[in-house]
Amino acid sequence: MNKSILKVKVRAYSSSANLGPGFDVTALCLDAYCDEVEAELVNEKRVRIIEVEGEEGISKYRNTAKYAVDELLRRLNVEKGVNLKIKKGIPIGKGLGSSGATAAAAVYAVNKLLGSPLKPEDLIDVAAYAEGKIAGSPHADNVAASLLGGFIVITSIKPFKAISLSSPKDFKFLTVIPNIKFGKRKTERARKVLPKYVSFQKFVKQTSSLAKLIVGFLKENEEMVGEAMSSELIVESSREKAGLVPLYREVREIAFKNRALGVCVSGAGPSILILCKEYSKKLESELKKLYNEEKIEVEIKRAKVAPGAHVI
Length: 312
Ligand code: HSE
Hints:
Blueprint: E1 7-17, E2 26-42, E3 47-53, H1 64-75, E4 81-87, H2 98-113, H3 120-135, H4 141-148, E5 151-157, E6 160-166, E7 172-178, H5 186-192, H6 200-218, H7 222-229, H8 235-241, H9 248-257, E8 260-265, E9 272-276, H10 281-293, E10 298-303, E11 310-311
Parallel strand pairs: 3-4
Antiparallel strand pairs: 1-2, 1-11, 2-4, 2-5, 5-6, 7-9, 7-10, 8-9
Helix pairs in contact: 1-2, 1-3, 2-3, 2-4, 3-4, 6-7, 9-10
The structure holds L-homoserine (HSE).
Residues 17-18, 23-24, 139, 141-142, 187, 190-191, 267-268 line the site of L-homoserine (HSE).
């Protein structure tokens, strides 16, 4: 007889969305940080976050994990409730998919408790709904990366669907994470500064870069990925102008001078993602010096491609 589980703990990793030309469409799951969510099925028909560990000031109510699990139970007509304990390892508001990873871990865990009625692919739309509650408009890139792992491509917007195309284990990334706080609703603000219209010429160039990015990942060709991720034309400059990615130009200059293969804004910023041929202490120390001279604390973390959400 199958013994049903009442409690489960799941890990989901951080992610870098957009990767240059793939705004809202491509993302990469990275092992820089991870969140853990423990879910327990209870009889009271209510979703409650009973503990948050690891980050100050996280709401137990306006939280993607709660929104996502509420939505999952609603879609599956479940007459039970869930208690959630969240261990935050991913810094919030830095463009590393923190809220998406919590939502991903939470729905993965609850789906498991319910006997896995949905496949991880089918959880993307549920978790993206929760992201939408926080970011103003739903987007699925971060949640898809945290759920599926590797390099993901969004293949449908309504409902959200995605596939994980490759997980090049030898690609070496640096995540540059400045300690700048833009306050609540940063992603919403970062989406409001985007242009409403784009010239046809830019559209064609950007599409070509996105194609190169996807082919680069499929072929696990890091030079191609590096070139593609560095050639964004529409989103990054608007966010840079709005002050959401301080020192971006300078970081690019230092990175390329030190033979980096590619540089892009991580998600909505302010973090920056660098793809390196080899890790270089010189590059890392020059980057630290740059931020320190501007009196900005910075964390520089090496990262590799990470797997999707899983039970621990
Ligand atoms: N694709 C989204 C954006 C990711 O850039 O707005 C933010 O989490």
